[in-house]
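Marked as duplicate of an earlier ticket. Keeping the data here for the record.
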Amino acid sequence: MSEHKDFLRTIVDEDLKSGKYKEVITRFPPEPNGFPHIGHAKSICINFGIARDYNGYCNLRMDDTNPTTEDTKYVEALKDAVKWLGFDWNDNVYFTSDYFPKIYDYAVELVKMGKAYVDSLNEEEIREYRGTVNEAGRRSIYAERSIEENLDLLDRMKKGEFKEGEHILRAKIDMSAANMKMRDPLLYRIRHAHHFRTQDEWCIYPMYDFAHCLSDYIEGVSHSICTLEFENNRDIYDWVLNTLNIVPPRPYQHEFARLGINYTVMSKRKLLELVNGNYVNGWDDPRLPTIAGYKRRGYTPESILNFCDQIGIAKANSMVDVSQLEFCIRDDLNTKVPRVMCVLEPLKVTIENFEGNEEIEASYYPHDVPKEGSRKIPFSKVIYIEREDFEENPPKDYNRLTLEQPVRLRHAYIITCKEIIKDANGNIIEIKAEYTPTSKSGSDTSGIKVKSAIQWVDAAKAKEIEVRLYDRLYSCEAPDGLEDLNPDSLHVIKNALVEPAVITDSADVRFQFERQGYFYADPIDYTDEKPVFNKIVGLKDSWAKKTKVVENIDKTESTPKQETKNLQVIGEVAPMSEDQKALFDKYTNELNLNSEVANILARDEKLSSFYEETLSKLNSPVSIANIVVNEIAKELKEKQANELKFTASQIAELIKMVDDEIISNKIAKQIFEEMTQTGVNPSKIVEDKGLVQISDTSIILPIIDEIISKNPDNVEKFKAGNTKLLGFFVGQVLKATGGKANPQVVNELVAEKLK
């Protein structure tokens, strides 16, 4: 068990001490409608981890109540994720669909109690009747149906006599409740759809709020742990169980903050957009935050578990720096993987005074890694070094090979440049060098001082490999859309060279390529004929924003394990006040904001006030909410609203220009940054800097033509069937226009051009 006691474990301790439960049973209940991501990993760690710590059980349950979106492939992906992270569900996967008969019986019982009724209002009428946060709703006229009539209608719904939307089953609670979710919530709806498990047996399906609490009870769950956006659903959870007078012990719901990571999106909608739009290479693309993506990239389950432990469990939403996840994989691999040499951009070096062949014994691990193992590195007259390790006209403080400066070959000898050979275009294609025989590493008696050691490979024995250099998929901390994609998130090198020790028959192999980073043999594309390695993570954080943790971990290629700072506060915050709940309900029910955004706004008076003021200037609730939560929140962290250089009216003006497609989201962010410094009106900034979004095809098409002409290889691959390259071309166009080109227009034009 963790040294600290988070608030969930504190609750469990108290429940066991009081005798509320004899054992701890939790559950991980994902809906099988998508591939699991790092957010699911956190939930897995919490639910299975608590069960493990208290010698209890955690059920793996598929919440399969929506037949139109669910599939067996998602079930298998979720099972694989749990297993990969090292947890066990006792070979018994539960399904909510297994409980459909029992859940239906509970619905019948509520009708008989006069606590549920069949409603025949349409969707629009239901929304209208619900009321607002300031006005009570009114109950449907159909709520006065007799128990007998309701039972008959429900039975006929079950038999498939009605069309979708013709009837629904609702709980009869309180149409004036402050928590709008309690205003006669839906319990069952009609769905004439094929279910991947129950086939066509059912044509009515229970809603989440009805099925979830009952499934927990049926399974004997003690602690129903879910993310913070379900906080207001707890009232329904309790009402159902209390009203049915179930036999104790019964489960209780507890909420924790969901995981947010900068430079990352975890929305199913946005991930689906990336996959279906061929901006990435499938759900296991190593740039995606999916479990499959992390596995294929080479992340270890231990690194994910450590990350989840470090960020802790909180009830306050916050954003975790992706650098902390990157630290966790470096920290894990540092003491595990062998060090070898790889040259990504080879430059030929002929050592003119060396004859014959030699094998140099070299350790796989540095002195501070307590592991043993070595290999023999072939060495001969012709070798390859990294192209960037030689400079004809070196800048100040350049420490590698130059015309005047010798350098050490890692594990081998010191060499000195004697001559450079260039091709007809003036490019260096070969270096003539000499080595110092008495300078062998470990027994150097030459007395020559060098400033650095560089990696190299033997020309005769080196193996050619493909290297895929992955970077962050998005170029900004809070990505909004496709315009924020990092065009340099993947760089493929076809002819990198590695020492022979890298080529192995073993599966699941990772290496540190010295001075390059950590690499993993791609589990899909790697073959003996064509070895492929994925870059897991660099040796250092190459991004401008660095935390103290990241700055400390890579001062050398190998460091002892260091203590990391926790970027997320461990602890519980106070439940929402009534006013906050009212705002939350307004934002989710009336303005259609997602639960996470609504929660942030409702809990922060400064943010909600600014949001409301901006909303009074422009009716664009979702767009305004996004900029307030992602951008303005940073400005209001240490300031009052009257200290800001910009006003709510200016923000409304900025968003209006985005909504009207005058500027792109990417440009809007640039404008906002200037507004924070100058307070200048966004329209003035756009006018002065010529930032109007480009939708004119006559301007965009020549740019597309130029990019296509410069990338004939990728065009060929696209036409040969690699449609995933569409994202590459779109990204290049957006980059060439400084983000000003309309992404939708670019997508359409590029697709047309590449036909």
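See parent ticket for discussion. Residues 578-689 form one domain.
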